[in-house]
Amino acid sequence: MSRLVVVSNRVPVPDKAGNPPAGGLAVALHAALKERGGIWMGWSGKSTGEAEPGPLSIMNNGAIQYALTDLTDRDVAEYYNGFANRVLWPICHCRIDLAEYARREMAGYFRVNRLFADRLVPLLRPDDVIWVHDYHLIPLAEELRRRGVQNRIGFFLHIPWPPADVFFSVPVYESILRGLASYDVVGFQTDYDVDNFAACLRREGSGDRIGGGRFRAYGRSFIAADFPIGMETAEFAELAEDAAHDRRIREMARSMQGRDLLIGVDRLDYSKGIPERIAAYEAFLKGNPEFQDKVVYLQVTPKSRSEVPEYAAMQENVASLAGRLNGSLGSLDWVPMRYINRSLRRPLLAGLYRMAKVGLVTPLRDGMNLVAKEFVAAQDPANPGVLVLSRFAGAARELDSALLINPHDAEGTGRAIARALSMPLAERKERWEHMMKRLLSHDVTHWCADYLSHLEPQRPTLVPEPAP
Ligand code: GDG
């Protein structure tokens, strides 16, 4: 089996005991790397100020080598906080209004991708299989090809791919499309994303599907298909069951005084629909006064990308909406919404999901949304809670037994919350069993193996083919 080389913006480096950080993706990729041997390369998360970054820092952990590069302040500002998070992220989430184009930042994005390519090439062996992750590194394959790399190179996009009209608002959209066509396998979360990507190529006249999941564009042929990401379902279910014995979970349960818990867990990000969710909860409480004082909504929201202005503004906004809601509807002994603006440990999170009667996952747009899957995996099979899920999350393609809602419709979402809280046990069980079956058969290990089986060298490809 050939060696695996994973490249991503950040690298989940294991702790001193050699254990990878919690979370499905890190665990699954570490397992694949351990089995095949290989390298995980990315940004160290550190900045050198104005000085040029020195050589890669290499750490060995058994069969896995971590190769980390520092970036300059300018790189971080232009590549990471700039083009990646102020252009590609909002565009892929259909927020043209939030995209800030600056030529300088676009240039910085391509410059850092060249730096990654320069650093990676000396580490490569001819039969390595290379797997690049996410929107920060789209141009990497093209840069590697320019340097003569002929290995199989795959890409997986964790976020959605937008409709053509939205994508074409990026001034350098053509370079991005050509960059994707330099891979051998381009993976998306859902078939909707693949369709949007196909429409971009077609509209541009630069390529199209040629059948069997294959595309031809910019003179190359490659696979583009959906590979919906999974989670470590069985392990997480166990974690949630064990959490019942955790002191903090028992204290939390006591503090509820018999009220039902609704839970939302999201990075603080405008794509997650947190203000819209608070509005829906308010609509629910006002439309169903019999539930007032009977429920508590817990929102766990670690800070994220605080250096990007839109995120700082969002932080203020959510805090003020939570305060306003509690001020207007709360009473002497009932706080309708509890808001935690920091990260909780994963086992605690698992226990909270299990305690909740309703999971609120209402993004305006999301590649997949693993919180939706984690909520389902954490439930007690004998008395499962109900998932209220946005139809604009990739997860809705698989979890169609959730109560699917439109997050822009506060009253409709409010009605779904009331329905979830009143749902009979038999219906809850039937919906949950259906979803859990899917999550067990399509877990993150399955996702990883399925993707890599498409990337293996024996798959037919990729002698450059003439343009259509
Ligand atoms: C991108 C795509 C796609 C959250 N709060 C805490 C915490 N979390 C963990 C959750 C979950 C993860 O963070 C968030 O994953 P999501 O999938 O929900 O969202 P993104 O971060 O936007 O991820 C997304 C994903 O990539 C994978 O492809 O699904 O669509 O946007 O695992 O549990 N974890 C801990 N404490 C917290 O407070 N420990």
From TrEMBL:
Gene3D superfamilies: Glycogen Phosphorylase B
Pathway info: Glycan biosynthesis; trehalose biosynthesis
Top-rank taxon: Bacteria
EC number: 2.4.1.15
Keywords: Glycosyltransferase, Transferase
One annotated GO molecular function: alpha,alpha-trehalose-phosphate synthase (UDP-forming) activity
Keyword Zinc included in the entry's annotation: no
CDD domains: GT20_TPS (cd03788)
Catalytic activity line of the entry: D-glucose 6-phosphate + UDP-alpha-D-glucose = alpha,alpha-trehalose 6-phosphate + UDP + H(+)
InterPro entries: Glyco_trans_20, Trehalose_OtsA
Function according to Swiss-Prot or TrEMBL: Probably involved in the osmoprotection via the biosynthesis of trehalose. Catalyzes the transfer of glucose from UDP-alpha-D-glucose (UDP-Glc) to D-glucose 6-phosphate (Glc-6-P) to form trehalose-6-phosphate. Acts with retention of the anomeric configuration of the UDP-sugar donor.
Subunit text: Homotetramer.
Protein family (similarity comment): Belongs to the glycosyltransferase 20 family.
PANTHER family assigned to the protein according to its UniProt record, in alphabetical order: BCDNA.GH08860 (PTHR10788:SF106), TREHALOSE-6-PHOSPHATE SYNTHASE (PTHR10788)
Protein known as: Trehalose-6-phosphate synthase
Gene giving rise to this polypeptide: otsA
